[in-house]
Amino acid sequence: MNTLNQLEPQQRRNLRVLFITGLLFWISIGILLPTLPAYLDAIGIKQQQIGLIIGAFAIGLLATRPIVGKLVDTRGRKLVLLIGTAVVAIAPFGYLAVTSIPLLMLIRAFHGISIAAFTTAYSALVVDLAPPKQRGEIIGLMSLTNPVGVALGPAIGGYLQVAGMYSAIFWVSIVCGAIAFISTTQLRESRSAIDPLEIEPVPTTSIWKILTNPALGIPALVLMLIGFPFGAIHTFLPLYIQSIQIDFNPGLFYTISAIASFSARSLIGSRSDRYGRGVFIAGSLCCYTVGIAFLATARSEMSFVIAAILEGLGSGTLIPMTVTLVSDRSLPQHRGQVLSTCITGLDLGIAIAAPVFGTIAQAVGYPGIFTIGTGMAASAIVVFSIWGNRSLSHSIGFCLGRDRDVYRQI
Q1: Domain at 1-199: CATH architecture
Q2: What DSSP string runs through 30-75?
Q3: What is the mean pLDDT of the chain?
């Protein structure tokens, strides 16, 4: 918090407004996570069709990531934030208004645009406002909106669901989104961060250039590899626990993971400014891999508790640190496209995980799914250790906190 007090008054104000906006946004999203499938079941939608509707979210998310990345760089961070908060406020009206499966899928895909727009613009604006020497600390603090919002939202939604108040669930989501939109209008964006006329011109970039640049493509690949086990946890964990007949509430796993994620995000940011991003990314990958391995062999409540702690610590460190890393390695005028492309790696892994693992679940079983996930997480360690910096020696030194990031721009 001392770092925030050292910033200019306008920077502090913007960061506070952003934090409130982010918290409301994630509550709006989180309140529907456990309740929307139950609502769809209550109105008579079949289980297979519920899966199609919920999965349509990824269509809007993946399809619009590249578009919003360019908008963030060419039209400004605030405009795209307004788009994201507007969509998150409008979409719940659709769930209340229609019962047609094709229309519900369309609304769900529209809802996916909210995360694509909001997360890209939010991350880019936080980076713009953070002094480079305190970038890790501020990104770590500002990323707390996600675990807090995603913890509060389902808790509120679960309470209302037990009371059978499905309409109230959607209205809370709408109100939170609307207040987030109003809060976003209070931001004062610096034109110099986005106006190509006020910065030194550089060659235009593209998704292909980003992905083939090892400085940026490797973090995107690492996120995609982690996306597979991440998606498996959020799709198959409740079924896995049910199949082995352990008296363990799946919701407790997600709660423990969220608390661990919160703890990691609040601690690692300032330390990454001192010791570098590489050691924390490498450590988070190891932590995440061990956590997934615990899931693959879990046969007791304690195994799931340990797995939840390790998974939360791993993801809570990896995601903000990777955002910080690619921000370090990108120029301000390309930051939106870079962030959107790299984060799409995680989105893609999560989106593919459900159908891929669902197809092979009968053959390998749920432990087999998490065994494969362990292998993918371990491969992410290998990729980052070998290619995370300009050469093998630089990469290993970077992972050990003994070498600088050769690719760092600013």
Answers
A1: Up-down Bundle (1.20)
A2: HTTTTTHHHHHHHTT--HHHHHHHHHTHHHHHHHHHHHHHHHHHHT
A3: 88
